[in-house]
Amino acid sequence: MLNTLLPMLLLAVLALAVVGAARRIALWRRGRPSPVPVLAGLMAMPRRYLVDLHHVVARDKVFANTHVATAGGFVAAAALLLVVYLVPLPGSVETVLEVLLLLFSATMFVGARLVAKRRRHPPARLSKGPWMRLPKSLQAFSASVFLIALANLGLLPEGLISGVMGWALAAVLLVALGLGLAELLLGMTWGGPMKHAFAGALHLAFHRRAERFSTRKSDREGKVHRSTGLKALNLEDETAPLGVATPEDFTWNQRLGFDACVQCGRCEAVCPAFAAGQPLNPKKLIQDMVLGMTGRSDAAYAGSPYPGKAVGEHQGNPSGPIVVEAGGALLDADTLWSCTTCRACVEECPMMIEHVDAIVDMRRFMTLEQGQTPGKGSEVIDNLIATDNPNGYAPAARMHWAADLSLPLMRDLGQVDVLLWLGDGAFDMRNQRTLRALVKVLRAAGVDFAVLGDEERDSGDVARRLGDEATFQRLAKANIATLEKYRFQTIVTCDPHSFHVLSNEYGAFGGHYRVRHHSTYIDELMAADRLSLRSWKGGSVTYHDPCYLGRYNGEYEAPRRVLTALGIELNEMQRSGFRSRCCGGGGGAPITDIPGERRIPDMRMQDVAETGAELVAVGCPQCTAMLEGVVDATAQVRDIAELVADALVSEDASGKERAARPQVVEVSP
What is the pLDDT of residue 187? Predict the structure, then answer.
């Protein structure tokens, strides 16, 4: 009975899976075109799956081993099952493959038992609903395949495989195998908990950011290139939408990426907006994008909702608007504007889904087409259009803070080693202290540098994150035109947002530069022994990783080396490095100001307080402003440049060493 019905069952399931795959592919292809190297992507897929993806999964060692046993066992067992029972084979070969089938199904069963154990008391971030059936399906499939292999190898007792008992056992095994295949193999292509396996593999092959993977190296140290710059809109194409208004406005491989979501909730667990009780949950947002493709309600969603927003109130429409002012569509506008663009969700996603790209794409439509930027967003954009800075100050006021410093100007010199990019922190009285400290450090090291002065415009970062791609591109092209007039080796800035834009996003418009964050450049000066420093004599210190320096650009060690060189022993926060908690200052979040249950910077300063540190070192003017704005903070906030400037040692006329402290003169714009 087994040998007669099993091939029929396998052929039927395989045919249905192919039909489901064709339907799903057609669903993805309803998105906008996105050229990809098909053959190269398919060839790279195994490495991307086994190396790049597993590198992220392996951060949770227990789950990683569970995934290897379960997923690896399933792929091998399913492939062997199809070969053994659908392809005529010599007896000896079939026996070998049956033994392998036995081993892989047993491995899968062990993994399935671990999955079942995890699902008994699942973390809040895991989706429930159909996912609770998955351990049963995994066990049913692996156990039935194991027993079928035993029977065909003649390793079951004769009484179990003959007569009525044999027919009963065969019936039970076929039913169990059929149920397992329906949930696992058919679920991959028709929709279900295993959908991520089929969509995920193709997502890795045709990823919108192929340069994220380990096939490309970006520097001599062999670091993997971090593709984090937003994709530019073609503003000249009048046929293309400005941003994403409907689910069909996403590119086809973005839609494929949404289907790859495994609903593990890792993004949810690290999202600062979700933790603050703002109406954003990156996992649900991706699932809502899937519902938008199929035109269904979110009522069947079985995970955590957006804070303060009940499940079941939103309806998708493949060609309808994602957000409507009256509500009731796929998303509420506040969900999109809650994002700080910190990329914590992207960094944690084992399927390498690009949540931030999708959010900014939808913001672009709301800003450019509808003019619906909340809070002070419209005012900031108007200021950028009128004065080239977000606060609306007169451009000539950019240098008021340095009236007594006699800073060299590029227009006077034409060529220097270092161009110091001031950023719009030049208009902020607090960040002026950081800039003055950095100037002091550069002069102490004998650096040949100059500034653009009033020729410098806003980098365009905040405009782009708010969705105003047109204003960003205008600012970028204007800055590039200015920079082309001069010769310099390196741009140095204390603003990670400007650093990121200049380094990673101006290239699309012809601006290719060697850019250094000031912590990295100071580290290079120290390594070259160009600074004389005294040892730190203060209290305990911790360091806050800026999102746009760390997760966006992979720079974690240079700031720590600088602090260590000062004699500081860091008390690291629990969430540091690539898992650092955002300060809440990125993505225009302080401008749109979506309310939540608590403030993100308050949570970050609580992280600081848990270390017992008396001082938190930072390397970003946004982080400084957000953290210093916390009421009743237990730690002082100082920029790395300020700490280095305080530690500078020079010699007076008598040859005695003295600590050189920067003179702070604050001049409001």
Answer: 92
Q: Give the integer Cα–Cα distance in Å for 557 and 559.
A: 6
- Whole-number Å distance between alpha carbons of 139 and 105: 9
Domains held by the chain: number: 3
- Cα separation, 30 vs 293, in Å, equals 9
Q: Which helix (H) or strand (E) holds 592?
A: helix 589-592
- Residue 283: count other Cβ atoms within 10 Å of its Cβ: 28
Last residue of a domain, one of 370, 399, 414: 370
Whole-number Å distance between alpha carbons of 480 and 473: 10
In terms of DSSP H, where are the helices of 182-271? 187-190, 195-205, 252-259, 266-270
Same domain, 8 and 80: yes
How many DSSP H helices and E strands does the chain contain?
30, 9
- Write out the residue range of the structural domain in which residue 150 sits: 2-210
Asked if residue 551 lies in contact with residue 342, where contact means CB atoms within 8 angstroms, the answer is: yes
CB 425 within 8 A of CB 494: yes
Q: Are residues 350 and 434 in the same domain?
A: no
**Closest alpha carbon to 259 in 182, 351, 345, 128:** 351
Longest dimension (CA), the chain: 107
| DSSP assignment letter at 409 | B
Asked if 445 and 576 sit in the same domain, the reply is yes
Tell me the C-alpha distance between 299 and 330, whole Å. Answer: 12
393 and 440 in a single domain? The answer is yes
Evaluate whether residue 229 is within a structural domain.
no
pLDDT grade for 663, boundaries at 50, 70 and 90: very low
What is the C-alpha separation between 19 and 120, in angstroms, rounded? 34
pLDDT over threshold 50, residue 606: yes
Q: Terminal CA-to-CA distance of the chain, rounded, Å?
A: 87
Q: Is the pTM of this model over 0.85?
A: yes
Q: Is the pLDDT of residue 218 over 70?
A: no
Q: What are 217's two structure tokens? A: 């190296």
CA 461 – CA 501 distance, rounded (Å): 6
The rounded mean pLDDT for the chain is 91
628 lies in some domain: yes
CA pair distance 444, 645, nearest whole angstrom: 9
β-pair type (490-493, 515-517): parallel
User: DSSP character for 338?
Assistant: T
Is residue 665 in some structural domain?
Answer: no
- What gap in Å lies between CA 95 and CA 273, rounded to an integer? 56
Are 662 and 437 contacting, i.e. CB atoms less than 8 angstroms apart? yes
Residue 652, pLDDT > 70, answer: no
657-659 and 649-651 strand pairing:
antiparallel
Average of pLDDT values for 371-383? Answer: 95
Measured distance CA(86)–CA(6) in Å, rounded = 9
Token reading at 519: 């912590």
Angle between helical axes of 2-28 and 252-259 (0-180°, round to 10): 140
Token pair recorded at residue 60: 């949770």
pLDDT in tens, 242-273: 999 999 999 999 999 999 999 999 999 999 99
